[in-house]
Amino acid sequence: MGSRASTLLREEEIEEIKKETGFSHSQITRLYSRFTSLDKGENGTLSREDFQRIPELAINPLGDRIINAFFPEGEDQVNFRGFMRTLAHFRPIEDNEKNKDPIASEPLNSRSNKLLFAFRLYDLDRDDKISRDELLQVLRMMVGVNISDEQLGSIADRTIQEADQNGDNSISFNEFIKVGNFLIFCIFGNMNYYLT
Amino acid sequence: LPPLLSSPLLSSPLLSSPLPLLSSPPSPLLSSSPLLSSPLLSSPLLSSPLLSPFVSSPLLSSLLSSPLSYPLSFLFHFSQRFTTVVPESCMLILLGLVLGGIVLLTSKKQLYQLEPGLFFLFLLPTIVGDAGYFMPARLFFDNLGAILLSDVSLCSDQKVQAGLMEFLLFGALISAVDPVAVLAVFEEVHVNETLFIIVFGESLLNDAVTVVLYKVYMSFVEVGPENVQTADYFKGVASFLIVSIGGTMVGLIFAALLAFITRFTKKVRIIEPLLVFLMVYLAYLTAELFSLSAILSMTFCGIGCNKYVEANISQKSRTTVKYTMKTLASIAETIIFIFLGISAVDKSKWAWDTGLISCTLIFIFVFRALGVVMQTWVLNWFRLVPLDKIDQVVMSYGGLRGAVAFALVVLLDAERVPAKDYFVATTIIVVFFTVMFQGLTIKPLVNWLKVPRATNRKPTINEEIHERAFDHCLTAVEDIAGLNGYHHWRDKWEQFDKNYLSKLLLRKSVYRKSELWEVYQKINIRDAISVIDQGGNVLTSARLSLPSMASRASFPEVTNVTNYLRENGSGVCLDLQVIDNVPGAKVEEESETHHFLAGNLYKPRRRQTLHDSGDHERQDREIFQRNMKSRMETFKTTRHKRHSHKKDRSQKKRRGSDVKEQDLNDKPRRNVSWQDKDPVVVPVESEDEKGEHLEPEKEEDVGITFVARKVPDTPKERPKSVPAGLEVCQSPSVAPPSPTCSERNLPWKGGIGTLPVCVSMEATKIIPIDLQQAWNQSISSLESLASPPGPVEPLHPRVSALSRLGGQRPVSYSGSGVSGSGFGSRGAGSIVAQGIARFEFPPGGEEKDEEEGALSDQEQELQPLMSSSVRPPGPPPPPPLAQGLGRRRNPCVYLRSLVTAPPPGSEPLARSRGPTQL
Q1: Where are the beta strands (DSSP E) in A43-170?
Q2: What is the reported pTM?
Q3: ipTM value of the model?
Q4: Cβ contact (<8 Å) for B479 and A60?
């Protein structure tokens, strides 16, 4: 399948993806073969079901959220470009010395983009706020069954209270940045490691 | 044996010393060692002058100076102004200078010198042993690569500074970054852990490199540069490998030995600390004896045995070991630095050469920086969190030279190395410069560069939650991208450790009960907290306004133990509370939430540690079911929007059971004939209805106990009529609690072929078999969620019970903790009555893993039963499953087990409930 992967992926495509996401050539081909192996329908796109077929994701509490993050709003197919674009969030932050392209928007792996990605995991309704309910949902996913809703609710309250600065009882993106900023280093950085 | 006897260690007066350690153990080693005759030993290095001067004064002087100097350093510790600016080591050196000056003035002769023998035999081991024993092993191994690399490169680059062999020699010894100095300075600066470990670990391993290089050059010098052949260089490299690897091995062997011995010290607790010291020290001496890297040996001995020994020995011994080691280490440190100061005063020992000194300083600095930059550049290709420029600066700046270099240079043979005096002088200056100047400035530098410091504060709740979420996120992405996790090897090792090492080295009781113990400990901590809590309540009503108070207030009372403690303890604590708990309420509130979270958040898959596989099973099962449920809901809601093949697809999932039933000739017990009668018509027409049928089910579904009883009867007849099948189809089809989910896989695979609308017709060709199976699993579990089939069912009572009572499991859990603590008699009866809801908070959860493990572990839950010996015959365990879970190599098997296996904890629980309530 590896050979097929490389033949199907055209050079110019690779170039574009490279430019957009910053992945190296070998990384792209490597991920492309993964992409095709996930793509059971062989139509060049991945559906949610394709993702859900990954066994490990079934036991990941946030699995479905992350799967959703791969899909642009309102769509249920993602092509390789989109796939790579999402994965690019997980590349390490780099000094933007080399790619000084003033026109280009911020690279996908910039800090704020990473944070935005994380933020979106919580913010389901895309109102740029994490409400108590949204937080509660995520918490519910992440804790065991032996915690009562009440307890969880108080944790959610506390969390929001801690981060909330303008008193609207929800976490805005700016507030989220303040909280998550230092985490970003330890969290989103290791794609390079695996892909080299 | 004559050659052996001539070896200085044997002939040294040490052997006749009263230390039992030295007299007995080394000799058998000595006599049996082939290594002794090896060229390694014949090299003049440590053997010759190492111990000879030992007889003279140093032991005495150290005894004399330690009581004197230790309080002094203690003083420095407490004069805050000073120590915020000046590292302790600088102060000690200064003090040494003064002391030395005084002594020199009075007696005209330097009485006290830092003698290499003293240094290597007593001072260095204590410090290194301390560091090794308490080194966070995980961090160390995480950074091992970095350490190794930096080590070798940094050491070797120094030798370029001069062509002469002697300068090479000098370069070798001066380039060693000294663990002692680094420790002293870095610990005070509180740089972040990574940095500290890298620099410190590097300096530890440096010993190996330095000593070997030193040896090699030493022998070169002896032979004379002109006689050195290329082969000798290779020999040098080889001996380096031997020395470092050998040292490590010796350390590990002793670690295993020590762990093994402590397994059997239950009756004689008192010797436990002694054993620890002796064995660690013995590791050092043994390595030294074979001219292997003693520091390495000791470090690895400490690291290696720490985990097992800590688990084996008693709490008191643990404390003793800890404090004794720390005390010894800091005494040794103090002595070393004072000696450095003292010996610097004695002019007769050294000769000044400005050129050499300044050159050396510059070179040291430049090469250190160069080396750091180069190797971090290489390292950053591989590292998870790249070392940035600031780290590099601190790393290169943190290259403090210290007593090791000094001791080595003093060891030089003045006849062979005529320039010894110059070297000594230069070394002293370098040591002074690095320790004083760099040590002084590193703190402001670190401040100025805003190097992330070690954080003592707890992360906020936000951080904790988000971090965990991110971890999950990352794991998911890894899975999606199909990458091997970073922790792959560590997982392997842990597996090995769990399967073999722990069994061999840990006490049975510990091995079985460590989680229990942990829990008990945490209960205690919690009790302490709640004692404070009560005091806090009296004083600060402000906390009542905090939202999480709600949760706490909602729990009526805690346990007996806690109450007991409260009543007895509160009076004592109140006084303290008045002083410091006023702002503490919030903090403490938070800590509670932290414990809570720590105990209950799911852990990312790869982070699992030793004992928690049972726990993970449970966690995985929960998540899995939850996920499947939510997926199912998504299907439900989205299916109307999707176009046809989608529908069919989701349809297929719903009908998965039917399809399974449909098929396959190799499953004779299935209703094969039905296959033809249940044609494609079904999906098309019935879809919507079915969704509706689903709907109500899902809503009330929370309790999960509901449909279970429908199950067993219907499977055969239902398929005959389509509508009937629709009515019941969710539950009965899968539900027949035939445990053979595995069998269903195959039918399902075939079933795909029989459904014409199915999209993934061709997909089946490519999908690797296990993926396919996994998918089947998820589908069948989808079904099973809609209607819990037999196998999964046992979980549910627990779930619902928990949601109802909010504390069913904790009952037994706290009971076990209590009984483990000896409060069993009291705990067992009253705990149930109390309702215990509060113990849903895992008490004091620093160790996330153990704790959850304790919660769910079957043994734990059986514990109260076992103590009262009412233990019922356990349910027949599903051994193959357990295996699959443990290995978790095959995701499919694993997932299957999630679906089919009765949660290990649930059954015993159900049983344990009975007796307890009685």
Answers
A1: 45-47, 77-79, 129-130
A2: 0.44
A3: 0.82
A4: yes
